[in-house]
Amino acid sequence: MNRKAMFLFFIMISTVFISGCWSQKELNELAIISAMAIDKNEDGKYVKTIQFVNPGNVAGGLQGGGGGQGPAVTVYTATGDTILEAHINASAKVSRRLYHAHANLLVISEEVAREEGIDGIIDAFERDPEVRTESKIVIARDAKAGDIVKSLTSIDKVPSEKVNKTLLVTERARGENIVVSIQDFISVSASLGREPVISGFRIKGEPEKGKKMENVQQSELDATLEASGLAVFKEEKLIDWYEGDLAKGTMWILDKIQQTDVKVSWKGKKNAVVYNVIRQKTNVSADTKNTYPEMTIHVRAEGDIRELTTPVDITDPAVISDLEKEIEKEIKKQLEKAVTRTQKNNSDIFGFGEVVHRTDPEKWKKMKRDWDDEYFPYVNVNVKVDAFIRRTGLRTNSFHSNTEK
Known about the structure:
nine-stranded mixed β-sheet, 14 helices, GMP Synthetase, Chain A, domain 3, 30% strand, four-stranded mixed β-sheet, alpha/beta, 2 domains
């Protein structure tokens, strides 16, 4: 047999092993899920709300061709004793196969998170090979989780995209929220030295109006979705909410601050100077010589002066140095406030236990089982902050300095 014949023979044989289209999924046979929400009803059953994408309405917009005439999403709700049963029951309402692969948001109600925890819910979704573990998790605050995914949004047509993009923007700009995926939650929960935090979302306005197309056909929406605080967990149950300085202090310690503002007083005037952080680095170390470890948090921040509401001579190096000290005090206050509240909660959301584990593995073995309740509340925490002013904006002294009374 010559080479050409052998080559042809092997090509023909190889076709036997080609799988073909045995697992094909036609688009017109799929109901593409973009978000899921979990509540519980009065009977104690799980209520699963599923947000489906309407491809034609998403693509249309201002392009013409009939697109954008209806809502970008459709929502169905089903109940069950388990998450899986609720999902299966939802299939009775939809004419297509429920397809999870594009779902990027999971919303869990505050009530469920407080009363029974969310580990069982996360387990149900993680076990499904079709569910993406990169999907983001948020807690519905002061609202039903189902109402969050039912609310229509204006700039981003698909509500799940609006929630995810808002999380990214507010984490980068405000420093009061954090992006957490299913995989992130599992990773933190599996650690004995750290508890998870998850961002909250609430509906501002009237939830019922937010479900109607009229809500997005006006310049000021009757109901909007907005990020709202950090949900603090212990043993997978929600125990507290952090907002404002508490949330910022937590983000500082977690080394998650990308940008944020720091307001300081000057010569008796409150919030006279606004310092915008443009970069920072937080290092946490542990000293395990004593019975209770001693933690040191060192923050280095760099930023710009972004606002002055009173005359300040920022051309004077001595004034700049004094301002930096005031900024350091304010940042330190935020961190210490977060530490105090968290130690009262007996929930190590900062990962101090992980630092102790890395520093002294042998001592950690004796502490790990009782860390949150017996050790973490009594840990001495030292906070050190170095803040630097790099720029003062497009002008030096404020125009207030040149105003003649």
